[in-house]
Amino acid sequence: MPESFVRAVGHFAYVWGWPMVSMINRRTALTSVPEPGLRGGVLPNAPLGRVCMLTDYIPAGQRFVACTNQDVLYGFGFGNLDEQPAVFQIPDFGDRFWVAAAWDHRTDSFAQLGKQYGTKPGFYAVVGPNWKGGLPEGISGSFRSSTALAAFCPRVFIEDTPEDRAKVMELLPYVTVYPLDQFDGTMRADDWANVPTFPVPGEVSDGEVHWVDPAKFFDQLPEVLDTVPPLPGEEALYQQFRALLAAADASSEVRQTLVEVAQEAEKEIITPLLRWEYNGPPAGNGWFSPKNNSAFGTDYLTRAAIARSNMFENAPQETKYIFTDTDIDGVQLHGSHGYTVRFPAGQLPPVNGFFSMTLYNKHHFYFENDLGRYSLGTKNTDLAYGQDGSLTLYVGNTAPDGAPTSNWLPAPADGFSLYIRAYWPQQPILDATWTPPRVERSD
């Protein structure tokens, strides 16, 4: 193969396969525990087929998953659904908002479980593409993944009050996922408040854990090709990628070229995808929002961008994600300035669930501050509204003079981004007739 051809196909293979190699490495790292527990005391880990649930908001110091929120209690885990289906146990949440996501190896969402679906309490199985067994009596429904590898993430909304926390703690033991062969038709209870802590493997930096190693990428790509069936029309891609890998097996020069290609693609393509402008089309006023999150199909660029910047998004009808790195003038948000984010009266994000606006530092993690405040939204019942019914949020490194502290979102002294979540969005958000607020400098 000419070197130019190796580089051309190799660059494309890197973008195409990056999210799926990330899935492999996350599965390996986050399931290597004997029982559900917390990695480093902060991130839920569990053996294959299980989840572990948090009993509080995810802490600010974790670096395993970027762009988490502090509106829900998270659970997380992985399964090999061809070897053993998993059961999502759903208690009676009453009027509380909740959603339980499941993603296949491509990071596409395939289960519809949540308040917005009218899901009733019960037991729901998720099965792999090649699993052929029968489901026992008592299973309320099932969803089939397109791949054996799947990730699970129940989310339960919690208000930031002692009273609501007490109510959630009564429900939480019954929110769980476990292998089908453990199903006996009765509601099990897991004591999530008393799970073990496991050490953090490797070093923790300011950014997200590097889940893809360019030097090893093309050694891991065969597992993707062998376990992720091609989409209609992708058969030729698979042939090209396999031919490339065969050439690398036969030639050390091709192998070395592919390592160089991977390193180049990581730096020149994947790293810039952290910028929100690459994560979806414009949504108005300098914000961006994907239209096909967790339903990417052959949109390889958006899938790679979201895997790099914000892995594991819900489907659009579950959550609309709207984000920006800049103010209304297109200038990078920076803590040396103050900003106002004003929602005119009647123009809060139209949702049936909840909304929040979270601030992330340049690495897409919380900016740790004395208030322990990383977002503002539905759960903040002390927000001060204007006499005309508008809501103005203040963003900056120092509290704004004369503005209510309850409406202030602390920012780092350098670059940052803003991120609106609209859980169970109403149609104006889905069809983009609702416009996000202006982010304006106030100094």
UniProtKB/TrEMBL annotation:
<dbReference type="InterPro" id="IPR010679">
    <property type="entry name" value="DUF1254"/>
</dbReference>
<dbReference type="InterPro" id="IPR037049">
    <property type="entry name" value="DUF1214_C_sf"/>
</dbReference>
<protein>
    <submittedName>
        <fullName>DUF1254 domain-containing protein</fullName>
    </submittedName>
</protein>
<dbReference type="InterPro" id="IPR010621">
    <property type="entry name" value="DUF1214"/>
</dbReference>
<feature type="domain" description="DUF1214">
    <location>
        <begin position="319"/>
        <end position="427"/>
    </location>
</feature>
<dbReference type="Pfam" id="PF06742">
    <property type="entry name" value="DUF1214"/>
</dbReference>
<feature type="domain" description="DUF1254">
    <location>
        <begin position="51"/>
        <end position="173"/>
    </location>
</feature>
<dbReference type="Pfam" id="PF06863">
    <property type="entry name" value="DUF1254"/>
</dbReference>
<dbReference type="InterPro" id="IPR037050">
    <property type="entry name" value="DUF1254_sf"/>
</dbReference>
